[in-house]
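Workshop exercise sheet. Pairs work together: one partner reads the sequence aloud, the other fills in the structure field after running the prediction. Swap roles for the next sheet.
Pair: D.N. / O.F.
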Amino acid sequence: MSRVRGFPEHGELVVCTVKNVKNFGAFVTLDEYDDKEGFVHVRDVATGWVKYIRDYIREGQKIVCKVLGVDSSKGHIDLSLKSVNEHQKREKIQQWKNEKKAEKLVEIIAERMGISVDDAYDEFGNDLLETYETLYGAFEAVVADPEDFLSEFSGDWTETFIEVAKENVVPPSVQIDGILEMTSSAPDGMELVKHALLAGLAAADGADVEITCVGCPKYRVVVNAAEYKEAEEVMRNVSSAAVNDLVSNGGTASLKRESK
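Structure field:
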């Protein structure tokens, strides 16, 4: 989360910069929490026995840690490096990069509006954080559906916010695919298959769908959408329409899902 001034929560993943490495552990600063200091004990650096701690962690390194404990009265934050897997690390680093980008975009908005960054957060930034949890999530939401965004928020700032979002943020999307197996023994079987595939595309109702032949009788269906639920619904509509159309004309058809 952007512009955080408090302390992280137990179990939270945080981006840190390693400042000082000792044999017994490493002192780090938390990038998202005003560079508050945290500590990674040597036992929490890696699984198993750590002979040379600098084989795993070094000064200046960006790392992702899990919060083990927080004592806000003393300013102590205990962290674990070994509790974060590679997938979590990549995901957290990307989230952190997105938030840094979002903070820069708020600065651009403030400049265009002729107000200070602090005033920008007071006017809309803090409300967006409360609603979307991340600033970048707010920018993604407005690019994906400006009308829905405007039904939630109003003010002189919204026009500039939408403008900057469209200039700098790519709408979020997911992609799923599957294989349609389509066969027909009729004399005009290929035409019937083509008709069925066109029926499938028509059922997409304007959604982002592509069907390509990967070697008869197999046809790949690729659906792009803003979220998985929407993508799955489109896939069901397209595949059902294609399968039903061919089956009604005496052919056989089925959908086999593939993961990307």
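Discussion prompt: Residues 86-113 form the longest helix (28 residues). What would you look at next?
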